[in-house]
Amino acid sequence: MRQAVSMVLVLGLLAATSAAASAKPAGDGRPPDGLYAAKATPGLSYSNGGVDLQVASGGRKIVFPSGVACYTGTNPPAGVPAEDEVSINIPRTVRIAGDGSFSFSGPVTISAEDAQADAPIKTTYKIQGRFKKAGHGTYEAVGTDSSPICQPSTRKRFTLIFDPAA
């Protein structure tokens, strides 16, 4: 009798574990680790808002170097070189939620080297989006980003591709 009760408890526990596992969304919404980048836009001499995201820790974090390269235009904010390209990196690790979503909004300091300026530049940067399975074994990140340091015509939407076969 005792063995039968133990067996029922074990089977019940296995069934509950199996039910909990099957309730979890397929793939957990987490992207594979690696670099997510946009395809180059032909005909542009600058990136016009090229975003790259480096995913690590089993699809749980966006890590350095991640961010945007954008053109400053003819009338950038004070201290920013005109008609140049600057790189803005997210200043800290950003968590990727279980559904693949992520966001960062806040102050950033662009190194003098990345800003191609005489001194570091303080500005703000905002990025938000979601990673998702795209098909044929590829993954993508879609979202929006912006910074007042980028020219007004800089693209605000991005689609980034990760292809594990590449």
Describe this structure in words.
The protein is of the alpha+beta class and 166 residues long. It has one domain. Helix content is 16%, strand content 42%. It has 2 helices and 9 strands, in the order αββββββαβββ. The protein has helices at 2-23, 112-115, and strands at residues 34-37, 50-56, 61-71, 85-89, 94-95, 101-110, 121-135, 138-146, 157-162. The strands form 2 sheets. Strands 1, 2, 3, 4 and 5 form a 5-stranded antiparallel β-sheet that branches. The chain has a 4-stranded antiparallel β-sheet with strand order 6-7-8-9. A hairpin with a 4-residue loop joins strand 2 and strand 3 (61-71). The longest helix is centred in the N-terminal third of the chain and has 22 residues, at 2-23. The radius of gyration is 22 Å and the shape is elongated.
In short:
With 166 residues, the protein is an alpha+beta fold. The protein has helices at residues 2-23, 112-115; strands spanning 34-37, 50-56, 61-71, 85-89, 94-95, 101-110, 121-135, 138-146, 157-162.
Oligomer: single chain
Overall outline: elongated
How much helical structure, as a percent, in the residues? 10-25%
Q: Describe the largest sheet.
A: 5 strands, antiparallel
Percent of residues in beta strands:
35-45%
Q: Spell the H/E element sequence.
A: HEEEEEEHEEE
Structural class: alpha+beta
Indicate how many domains the architecture comprises. 1
Terminal Cα span: 59 Å
Number of strands: 9
Tally of contiguous helical segments: 2
Low-confidence stretches: 1-26
Rounded to the nearest angstrom, the radius of gyration is 22 Å
Please, what is the average pLDDT?
Answer: 79
